[in-house]
């Protein structure tokens, strides 16, 4: 796992991917909420004042399948909240896709080599024969700005309009349709892109052991031995600095080396140095321990299956 794009703490790859599943789950719920919000019959609002015809609006709503009636005729003809809610929801979906695609671009690079994207989602270079460019993730990432632009366009259009209807409001159609087409197209291509990628497990596992990714675990160990976290943080920071200066990793240090930095270290510290140990220790709801990740997979499967 990374913060500031720097090695931070070991996590399961499944745990990392589940973060995006959480985002997309919220996106789905947001769309459901938007649907409930706009499920009101505007018929009967007239131009802005209502209608003088004696119509049964509730009967019409029932026949057409609306859940409720609009309660104010002026709001009914001048409201575009539903369109803007949809554009906002679409923008967040694209933002989440963009973040995911950015990581796919990074992970598929020679520098990371965490994943291999299928050839069908990449292209070569017109000049450099060795290149395999992650075109599809880059295109989806790029289209995020387009949909955010659709949202901003309508927000700016609506920001100073007096009640009730104004011709400016006809500008709601183009950004809405563009948003829907872009989001649907991006989601449609994203699924096979992820399904077809290959995870380079050995490379990920090897990388997780470097960069002092278990430093926080060692600091926590010192806290459990009675030290304040501030002091534990400083001790482990000094150990990291020593290792960097001498081109060492934690696993290269002997028990005597550890005890040279603090008398609180005992043989147990030697069992805290692997990424696997660190991952298993995060056995709390929402954590990256294998059992907790399996628990979240089951919960999210139930959610997406409509349970």
Summarize the structure.
This protein has two domains: 12-200, Fumarase C, Chain A, domain 2 (Up-down Bundle); 207-298, Orthogonal Bundle (Ribonucleotide Reductase Protein R1, domain 1), CATH 1.10.40.
Give the key terms.
6 strands; mainly alpha; elongated; two-stranded antiparallel sheet; 4% strand; 58% helix; 307 residues; Ribonucleotide Reductase Protein R1, domain 1
Structural notes for this entry:
The protein is mainly alpha-helical and 307 residues long. The protein has 2 domains: 12-200, Fumarase C, Chain A, domain 2; 207-298, Fumarase/aspartase (C-terminal domain) (Ribonucleotide Reductase Protein R1, domain 1), CATH 1.10.40.30. It is 58% helix and 4% strand. The protein has helices spanning 13-38, 57-64, 73-78, 81-107, 135-158, 173-196, 201-208, 215-224, 229-245, 255-261, 275-281, 290-304; strands at 2-3, 6-7, 40-41, 68-69, 115-116, 198-199. Helix 2 (57-64) links the parallel strand 3 and strand 4. The chain starts with a strand and ends with a helix.
Spatial ordering of strands, largest sheet:
1-2
Query: What is the CATH domain class of the largest domain?
Result: Mainly Alpha
- In total, the number of domains comes to 2
What's the total count of β strands?
6
What is the CATH third-level topology name of the largest domain?
Fumarase C, Chain A, domain 2
CA(first)-CA(last) distance: 31 Å
Strand content: under 5%
Please count the helical segments. 12
Radius of gyration: 27 Å
Shape: elongated
What is the architecture of the largest domain at the second tier of CATH? Answer: Up-down Bundle
